[in-house]
Write a structure and sequence with these properties.
Blueprint: E1 42-48, H1 53-66, E2 70-74, H2 78-87, E3 93-96, H3 102-110, E4 115-124, E5 126-130, E6 138-140, H4 141-148, H5 157-160, E7 170-173, H6 179-189, E8 199-200, H7 204-212, E9 217-221, H8 223-228, E10 233-235, E11 237-239, E12 245-246, H9 250-254, E13 262-270, H10 277-296, H11 304-319, H12 326-329
Parallel strand pairs: 1-2, 1-3, 6-11, 7-8, 7-9
Antiparallel strand pairs: 3-13, 4-13, 5-9, 5-10, 11-12
Helix pairs in contact: 1-10, 2-3, 10-11
């Protein structure tokens, strides 16, 4: 199990958010609108994406300020690693930088784990270089693919452009348990395999340190980690083959200009865990606060209609009128 990682350096001094609305009482025992969250107790275990982790940690810190007797852990083992625990029934909340895969949904179903999915923010996967790299300011998706493809890859900067240095590019990227890895491979490489001679890590801080320490390094990870480390890293603009170089930022992620490396972020909640009052109130708090906290940790708020759909699903779950999202997603076991 990955160790819980404190990410409070990504945000400081946010005021506690006052709960703004009550949900209907139903099949599950829910607190009244004016309930004192300090009466709650218990433990909430989350794991998964290193990208979503900062947002969940921010929510946990705000929630624990009002519910100090609830112990909330935010572990980081990557989206894939997190789903292994989640589908084994070991965690209450799964942080995911991609949607659940069919085989993961099948494992959950085989283990009797039903779940709800909530979209909580948007992110832009950011390609980064060392601060002393002055030559690569924009890269086409085609050249990015050449750098990362297994067959006949570009190995030096000069392979991309003869005007660039002839030194070998040192590549850093998320490990195979990362949802960011899955998204990047699918988006940039398509059906091609990724090269194996890069330095992987599920911990984005390791990738930051690697690129920051090598003038010939290039890596990728979520926008929040770049924004926290832009004093030692450069963000490379992306040209999606139309001649326009777009730098990742909250604005370009929000308006869709940063294509094709923008993506939604999710949390999954174990349906059985949602029977517990402390989990109910944590998720209620998450859905109410995500739009406010996402920009504070370097991400982009989802559209208002997405949060409205999240809350509608949450209300239905609490009232007993909703069906877990897993019911439609699971692939029948053979």
């Amino acid at each position: 199990m990955a160790e819980g990682r404190k990410l409070s350096s990504l945000r400081q001094g946010l005021p506690a958010f006052l709960l703004a609305s009550a949900l209907c009482a139903g099949a599950m025992p829910v607190l009244a609108q004016d309930a004192d969250l300090s009466s709650l107790s218990g433990t909430i275990v989350s794991d998964g994406s290193s990208t979503v982790g900062p947002l969940t940690q921010a929510v946990a810190e705000e929630f624990n300020a009002q519910a100090p007797n609830v112990q909330t852990s935010v572990d980081i083992s990557g989206t894939g690693g997190g789903f292994k625990r989640f589908c084994a029934g070991e965690t209450d909340v799964q942080n995911a930088s991609r949607a659940i895969k069919d085989d993961e949904a099948t494992t959950c179903a085989d283990n009797g784990v039903d779940w709800y999915q909530f979209e909580v923010a948007y992110d832009g996967v950011t390609v980064v270089t060392n601060k002393e790299n002055t030559w690569l300011t924009c890269i086409t998706t085609a050249d990015l693919k050449r750098l990362w493809q297994k067959e006949n890859p570009a190995n030096t900067w000069a392979d991309l452009n003869p005007d660039y240095p002839g030194e070998t590019v040192a590549l850093y990227g998320p490990g195979t348990d990362s949802g960011t890895f899955d998204f990047f491979v699918e988006t940039i490489l398509g059906e091609d395999e990724i090269r194996e001679d890069f330095t992987p890590s599920e911990d984005d801080n390791v990738l930051v340190e690697g690129v920051a320490g090598d003038v010939n390094a290039l890596g990728y990870f979520g926008l929040a980690y770049f924004q926290e480390n832009q004093d030692v890293l450069n963000a490379v603009a992306i040209d999606a083959s139309d001649g326009t170089c777009v730098t990742p930022s909250p604005d370009t992620v929000r308006d869709g200009a940063y294509a094709p490396l923008s993506r939604p972020l999710f949390v999954y909640v174990n349906a059985d865990s949602l029977q517990r009052p402390e989990v109910q109130e944590f998720i209620r708090f998450y859905l109410n606060d995500a739009a406010t906290l996402a920009p504070e940790v370097g991400y982009v708020s989802s559209p208002d209609e997405s949060y409205a759909e999240d809350m509608k699903s949450f209300e239905a779950a609490l009232s007993g009128t909703g069906t877990p999202d897993s019911a439609a997603a699971a692939t029948p076991a053979s």
